[in-house]
Amino acid sequence: MSYTYEYPHPAVTADICIFSIREGTLKVLLIQRLIDPFKDSWAIPGGFIKMDEDLAVGAARELEEETGVSGVPLEQLGAYGAPDRDPRERVITVAFMALVPSDQMVLAAATDAADAQWFDMDELPALAFDHATILADARARLADKVTNRVTETAKSAFQFLPQKFTLAQAQAVFETLKGEPLDKRNFRKWIAANWDLVDLKEKTSGGRHRPAALYSVDF
Amino acid sequence: MSYTYEYPHPAVTADICIFSIREGTLKVLLIQRLIDPFKDSWAIPGGFIKMDEDLAVGAARELEEETGVSGVPLEQLGAYGAPDRDPRERVITVAFMALVPSDQMVLAAATDAADAQWFDMDELPALAFDHATILADARARLADKVTNRVTETAKSAFQFLPQKFTLAQAQAVFETLKGEPLDKRNFRKWIAANWDLVDLKEKTSGGRHRPAALYSVDF
DNA sequence: TCAAAAGTGTTCGTTATACACCCATGT
DNA sequence: ACATGGGTGTATAACGAACACTTTTGA
């Protein structure tokens, strides 16, 4: 089957930057490409948009196909369309991003992906296409969104915490997302002022040091 | 000549929201479509991206072809790709926006455009495709960008002022761009703090009322 | 003298930032 | 006793928002 047009058409893809926190560090979900170009290179997941699906829907589908990850709320980052960004043909990509919990997530590489793995944002491999640029843009946007206001993005930060958590644990999560250390007292003021924390009147135990108070959060 | 692909490809367009101030009100540059679909409807200028040009370059080219407007710095707004947004075939558009002075600008409708005119943002005609949505997004972004920091977008606001201007004139420009009235004293504090105003030690004359001090701005 | 626009400061609330010491526990 | 992380308050600066009266001119 082939498709013919009177004028040349670019291909359009969606690429998705999926961030998570694992082992206390910010990770991004990458796939290893199974096919050329950039065969065997790592890349952010993505693929061609179908003719009858919305951009965000196509992005979600490609994400699930290549990595097994589904049900994440994607936010559009923008379009990337340098003429030579794909050596095959003209490909314009629309980039999306999301922040998700990943503890119970099972990665399942399929379709164009030989493998799907979480990479530490500080130890990225060489990336296919212009994905390093896209990912850098996404990283910057993530840091902006997490602490400024009580947005959906900020809410999702709490997914990296157990239901009962200490303030030190919460601080570590926000530091990881923001990419810089935060002042302990200022952080505690901020979280108390901006979120509905419930003091559970419980303390951690078994630690080597002073027990910490446990909290939960109501949205 | 025709172009054949193994898989279906969408068409990709760039659409451009060009804002200006004319007669003291915020205007947007629209074209009247010469061809179907939406023949005779008004639309924001735009058209198909060529295979070897960058998105922003294509947007600038389409803008010039259809309206005669050139040399404007475009900022990407995002991609719009609902499957049915174009009745002909699947068309994904990348929207751009800019704020430009228009006093000496000569509009020259050509190519797909029967006409090119400035429309008052408060009196828009029915627009083709999903252009009403795109334009509303652009309008919101414009208001955000103009007053918050000393950005390029904010700089361009001064292009709507004569070289020697009064603070009341400047306030009127910023109010138009922001879409809401500003407090006189707060505005004067803000403009003095954020811009390098030069007090020209001159006053307006010929007005019916108290003369106003004239300023110019250095960047 | 009146109408109309020009000009001018202070207060308050919120937010971000900086910063140092004592406390409770396990070893 | 000591090492380790838990826990706490105050001061300052910057910013945005609210707000009313006097001055100067032409008609």
Low-confidence stretches of chain A: none
Biggest interface = A-B, 28 and 28 residues
| C-alpha termini separation of chain A | 51 Å
What does the radius of gyration of chain A come to? 20 Å
Question: What does this 3D model show about the protein?
Answer:
The structure is a homodimer of 219-residue chains. By secondary structure, chain A is an alpha+beta fold. Chain A is 26% helix and 30% strand. The first copy, chain A, has five helices and ten strands. In chain A, strands 2, 3, 4, 5, 6, 7 and 8 form a seven-stranded mixed sheet that branches. A two-stranded antiparallel ribbon of chain A has the order 9-10. In chain A, a hairpin with an 8-residue loop joins strand 3 (25-33) and strand 4. The longest helix of chain A is centred in the middle third of the chain and has 18 residues, at 131-148. Chain A starts with a strand and ends with a strand. Chain A binds a DNA duplex (27 and 27 nucleotides) through residues 166-168, 183-186, 188-190, 193, 207-213.
Name a few traits of the molecule:
homodimer, 219 residues, alpha+beta, seven-stranded mixed beta sheet, two-stranded antiparallel ribbon, 5 helices, 10 strands, 26% helix, DNA-binding
Summarize the structure.
The structure is a homodimer of 219-residue chains. With 219 residues, chain A is an alpha+beta fold.
